[in-house]
Amino acid sequence: MRIAIVNDMPLAVEALRRALAFEPAHQVVWVASDGEEAVRLCAENTPDLILMDLIMPVMDGVEATRRIMAESPCAIVIVTIDREQNVHRVFEAMGFGALDVVDTPVLGGSNPKEASAPLLRKILNVGWLMGQSEKRVTPVSAQPRVPGGRGGLVAIGSSAGGPAALETLLKGLPRNFGAAIVLVQHVDQVFAAGMAEWLSTSCGLDVRLARDGETPQVGTVLLAGTNHHIRLLKNGTLAYTAEPVNEIYRPSIDVFFESVAQYWSGDAVGVLLTGMGRDGAQGLKSMRQQGFLTIAQDQHSSSVYGMPKAAAAIDAAVEIRPLDKIAPRLLEKFAK
Would you say 303 and 165 are in contact if contact means Cβ atoms under 8 Å apart? Predict the structure, then answer.
């Protein structure tokens, strides 16, 4: 993979170079010391992937991500040395289309290959996303549903560009919204708690990580919070599971949507937002086949028109809507 590094710290650049050297297929095509230089170099020589720092002189990583995704789009992974201090910047960059975030590898440890493993795994995931073959189709057996049996549920899936899209959508919903909400966002578990806190603060809703064994409740927005998948069980509770182990998206939107199609006995809406790849498309179709309303974000308002496009291509969405029109539709659906 052709990889660019954007970082103003020589030690961080060297750590990234050493980490990438453990995988001979990776080639560093250029290095930029600030965001402005990165924007220029990306336009001249667009790489497969950029490893983007956040705090830099001249232009920071957030603005550089925004400019690159608008002018010379490519895959971007945020690499930061202090995620707790930069959590808001991380999600702002992801809102502009950054795919994921990972800690900067540490030089001088006893096992440098082990220290490089999280970064190399992220890069492997990005490679899968960019070159992924058609996803498997998991048949969902029809289950009798009792109208209103468990109340209302909104199941939302998002990936690249998702944090900002989720912020916009949730800001359009009141605190007394008449349905439970469960979010599945492609984000590493070390950043999930920060994302829930960020959404809760910015949207004014009660957003927290979903707990194993709890039931979705009206008035609470639950975010999948581990690198395992989250499922709805037959008894209406949520559970984290490592299966299916071969699913490259963790947590997988398809896995959650398909469990909702199979087991939710009340009314439900599936919403698939911006993101790269195809995750969520088949699960959204499964929900549609069970008679649920399904909504996909439109191309114009998507930061990355991948997952919603895949859903539209297989006729999984009952409605395709601009981002700012999704919350009003949910309010109409679950009006108190």
Answer: yes
Residue 68 sits at the vertex; the CA angle it makes with 63 and 72, to the nearest 5 degrees, is 165
Helix (H, G, I), strand (E, B) or coil at 256: helix
User: One of 34, 279, 298, 301 is an active-site residue; which one?
Assistant: 279
What whole-number distance in Å separates Cα of residue 290 and Cα of residue 269? 11
Of residues 72, 159, 202, 252, which has the active-site annotation? Answer: 159
Instruction: End-to-end CA distance of the chain: give it in Å, rounded.
Output: 52
279 assigned to active site: yes
Rounded to whole angstroms, the Cα distance separating 101 from 78 reads 4
Among the listed residues 205, 319, 218, the one whose alpha carbon sits nearest the alpha carbon of residue 266: 218
Among left, alpha and beta (phi > 0; psi -120 to 50; other), residue 220 is: beta
Round to whole Å and give the CA distance between 132 and 275: 14
Say what angle helices 189-203 and 162-171 make with each other, to 10 degrees: 30
For residue range 34-75, list pLDDT tens digits in order: 999 999 999 999 999 999 999 999 999 999 999 999 899 999
State which amino acid sits at residue 180. Answer: A
Q: Which residue in 91, 217, 105, 84 sits closest to 150, CA to CA?
A: 217
Beta strands across the sheet bearing 180-185? 207-209, 221-223, 180-185, 152-158, 267-272, 293-297, 319-321
pLDDT on residue 83: 66
- Please identify which of the residues 186, 252, 254, 286 carries the catalytic annotation: 186
pLDDT tens-digit series, residues 75-125: 999 998 876 677 788 888 888 888 888 888 887 777 888 889 889 988 887
Q: Are 122 and 236 in contact (CB under 8 A)?
A: no
Alpha-carbon distance 155 to 161, whole Å?
17
- Active site includes 229? no
**Distance between CA atoms of 94 and 116, rounded to whole angstroms?**
22
DSSP state, 104? P
Q: What is the pTM of this model?
A: 0.82
- Mean pLDDT score of the chain: 89
